[in-house]
Design a protein that fits this description.
This protein has 292 residues and is an alpha/beta fold. The chain has ten helices and eleven strands. The structure holds NADP nicotinamide-adenine-dinucleotide phosphate. NADP nicotinamide-adenine-dinucleotide phosphate binds next to helix 10.
Length: 292
């Protein structure tokens, strides 16, 4: 078994982006700028946003976090988004999900200018992705593809089972894995899937994005399979300083010995998500996807 090490791969991606930013600075040019919008004070969201902000600093991007209380109105947030859409100094921005219940997430995502939608959640980017056109790819699936590529994982004709069908992970992941050039045969599973364990047992590559600790157990894994664990589940722990421990969806201890490759949690997909967001921001800055 070999680890799909998100630390190594994301470090490499960030180093190459940092070198490009240093070159921009040396030429006296403006550097890429990412804004993260955080509504409310969900602990996990605060950590994700702080990590994204830190990654921007590491590569030399400008960045800022706009923090708003949970009781702002949808109209207020839409106005803030409009300002970011129009701000020429802002190359890309993200609105950290989930939003408070009284704010309609779809309405917010649709208000983001697709050219600044570095999370790749806007329907224009989703539609372009599905059509195989240049688009901002959602950061988590995009990061997973980078990880598979780095470790030369053979995807062509392989059977991949994606567990989870969210718009931000499972669904785009399944779509990308089935695209020409990647060429997996994809099964997508969800809470209504019958005989899920049987489906997963047939997989050469398993991507789990459920959000449930120890959901994927060793008996579900075909010997030699590649296992990608997207889950980020925070469990109470008296063995850490923070009082929390991060675990994935996969029963790592028992699954790892059966796999050819597996991602650790932490240190796997989460880091790749952040470096893909950074890469998308550089693409937005360079207008690689959409000509202005
Ligand atoms: P989500 O929107 O809650 O989707 C979860 C999916 O899992 C749904 O499609 C759901 O099926 C399915 N599911 C739930 N229980 C199931 C069961 N018993 N059997 C089969 N399928 C089941 O979550 P998400 O946003 O995709 O995130 C999933 C996990 O990934 C979470 O732990 C999240 O924190 C993590 N995540 C990590 C990263 C990263 O960078 N590592 C990024 C994003 C998310 P239904 O559709 O039928 O309800």
């Amino acid at each position: 078994m070999e680890l799909l090490d998100g630390k190594v791969v994301s470090r490499g991606l960030k180093d190459s982006i940092a070198a490009e930013v240093a070159e921009l600075k040396a030429q006296g040019k403006r550097v890429p700028f990412l804004v993260a919008v955080l509504v409310g004070d969900d602990d996990a969201s605060k950590i994700y946003v702080a990590n994204k902000d830190k990654a921007c600093q590491e590569v030399g991007f400008g960045s800022t976090v706009l923090k708003f209380p949970a009781d702002i109105t949808e109209e207020f947030l839409l106005k803030e988004i409009d300002k970011l859409n129009k701000d020429p100094e802002v190359d890309g921005f993200i609105v950290q999900l989930p939003l408070p219940d009284h704010i309609n997430e779809s309405r917010i995502i649709e208000a983001i200018d697709p050219r600044k939608d570095v999370d790749g959640f806007h329907p224009t980017n989703t539609g372009r992705m599905v059509s195989g056109l240049p688009s901002f790819l959602p950061a988590t699936p995009c990061g997973i593809l980078e990880l598979l590529k780095y470790y030369n994982i053979d995807t062509r004709g392989k059977h991949c089972v994606v567990i989870g069908r969210s718009n931000i992970v499972g669904r785009p992941m399944a779509n990308l894995l089935s695209q020409k050039g990647i060429d997996c045969t994809v099964t997508i599973c969800h809470s209504r899937t019958l005989n899920l364990a049987e489906e997963v047992r047939r997989a050469d590559i398993v991507v789990s994005a459920v959000g449930s600790p120890r959901f994927v157990t060793a008996d579900m894994i075909k010997p030699g399979a590649v296992v990608v664990d997207v889950g980020m589940n925070r469990l109470r722990s008296d063995q850490t300083k923070s009082g929390w421990k991060l675990v994935g969806d996969v029963d790592f201890e028992n699954v790892a010995p059966k796999c050819s490759y597996i991602t650790p949690v932490p240190g796997g997909v989460g880091l790749m998500t952040i470096s893909s967001l950074i890469a998308n921001t550089l693409r937005a800055y360079k207008k690689e996807i959409y000509a202005w």
